[in-house]
Amino acid sequence: MPNVQQTEAVLAINGGEPVRKAPLPWELPGAHWIGDEELDLVVKVVKAKSPFRFYGLDSQEMVSKLEAAWCKRFNRKHSLGVSSGTSALRIALAAFGVGPGDEVLLPGYMWVSCIGAIVLQGAIPKLVDIDETFCMNPDDLVAKIGPKTKAVLVVNMSGAPGHIEKIAKIAHEKGLKVLEDCAQALGSSHFGKPAGCFGDISIFSFQLNKNITSGEGGMLLCDDEELYKRCVAIHDLGYTRSDEGRLMPNDERYQMWGFGSRMNELSGAMLLAQLGKLDQITGAMRNAKWKIRRALEGTPGLSFRNIPDPDGDSGPFMITMYPNKEKCLEFTKALVAEGIRGPEGSMTCIPMSDWGMHWYYNNPSLVKKRSISSEGFPWTHPANDFGKGYSYEKGTLPKCDELSERSAMLAIASTLTDKDVEDIIAAFKKVAATVLA
Ligand SMILES: Cc1ncc(COP(=O)(O)O)c(C=O)c1O
Question: What phi and psi, each to the nearest 5 degrees, are found at residue 283?
Fold first, then answer.
């Protein structure tokens, strides 16, 4: 007769008892924390009948207050609320003056919006490999900088920066603009300096999956007055506004074109309330994540993403690495069977090969060099001939390809209980004992 120890160790995927049956909470860090504070501020906007940021019956100036709070938190001179992280990326590149004849370097692990912003601006994206930080590899950046490079789009992925300081230094020494994408890493920092303080322009997203949310929304940060004014005009209708919020088309310094990407007061109100909770949200995720990670460190066959400064991690994801693709898939499947999964429709526990358009080669519009104009802009623009031989097919970035196949991701909800944390640790240990033995 098998002893109790052996019976318990049978994996759920092989017919054993799962570690837990109830689903883990949804990811969506900020959403769990929406409550009376958000409601009170949104109600103020509604009662004042003033949802537009630049003027209204009785403007509550929520977006302006949010921008002021943002400048203070990051100790930067200018901030601008916008309608999404995607629009923030485009506005930033346009403010830099990026266009045909330019290439912008970006990592192969990012989000489709990063590529789209470059292409829609008429420039050519050039891929840079990552390292085990799952962010841009500084050595490959140096190798990829060329005569057409105008800017570096560095992305702080999955909750934390990689070698951000080094990358910004390399780019600045070469006279390149740095666009820092903090959409996935609000509230993180790198040895005491917040993510959002490394770019000539740094951007954020407040879409539902982000550390704080208003459903949709974005923010830009910069110090340079001229860049800021360009952002202001471009995010709006191409012109600046007077103190009364009226457009000033006759100001010859800012006669441009606009993306129509203003933030509205309802979003501003929600985000002001959410910002007040940011440190609690990231604190909860970081504590839970590192408790799990530290309990598992040293498990044979299991390794972890390199986070240069663990204290600065905002915590929404734990990335694990396995000896090969087969072990990774087997491990993750077994973990899910043990109950380490979220509610139907969530992406709580997945092999990173399922992480879609975060990987360059999973973006068909990039791989096939698609266009939204009939003559194929920007790929066909004569000034972009230099990029004709660039490939975006799988195989272009060896480390990205390798890590996308042998790593997995666990979303760390911002409301995990001690019991949830214990179950996650127990399930990893149980699966490791069989799958990685
Ligand atoms: C790295 C990164 N950049 C940009 C964005 C775009 O943000 P949004 O969804 O607000 O347009 C996202 C969000 O999904 C992202 O993850």
Answer: -60, -45
